Structure formats: C-alpha cells, structure tokens
Write the structure tokens for this entry.
Amino acid sequence: MYLVRALGNSSTVSSEIKAIAAEAERKHEREEWSRSANGASKNRIFARTSSVYYVLGPVVIEKGDVVCVLFGGRLLFCLRSIGNRYLLVGECYTHGLMEGEALGIMARGKLSEKEFEIS
C-alpha cells in the first residue's frame, strides 16, 4: 500500500502489486469499520421503547427509563425518574429520532414536550 501511495500511477509499480495494495486497502477499511462499531457499542445494550423505537443505550438502562430529546441538543438521553427529579443515565442512539425527526413527530401529536429537573 505504501509503494502504491508513494508512487501513485507510476509505471514502475506492477499491476499485480497495485491489485494486492487495493485488496489490502479494502481489508483495512473493513477492519477500521469493525473497530469503530465495536467501540460505539461497548458497554451498550439494545432496548425497545414502549412506542416501539429501538435504542442503543447504556448497559444500565432499565424498564421505565425515559428516552428524551433535549431541545437544542444533538444527542438523545436516557433519564431515570427518582421522585420528582430525573437521573441522567447516559446518552443513547434511537433510530427514527436522531435526525430531527422527533420535532416532526411532536408536531403530529405523537410525542409530547415535558420539563425535566435533572440531578
């Protein structure tokens, strides 16, 4: 890979070496993706909300925890009710709510706005 990168399209690099380098590059990309996926899912578990959204959240998530979008934020969070306050359990990924979809769903009356006091 180094020779091909260093010499570019030079005719001094054989087509066989270029093919080997291309395969090594593809393998490296797959391994890089695997490392990233493993890092993103470490200490996380899959869960499902009562409204059937799939969540990748903290390993300590429990039934009854709340997945919420904090206005102005870029991430979703898992909160746990403790009396009249909430404990921030951690960030989570919730498919279908991450790209601003929550505001559209709220406008249709399917999600509601709530004020949280976080401890």
Remarks:
- Residues 2-41 form one domain.
- The two ends are 52 Å apart (CA to CA).
- The chain has a mean pLDDT of 82.
- The beta strands are 44-48, 54-58, 66-69, 76-82, 85-94.
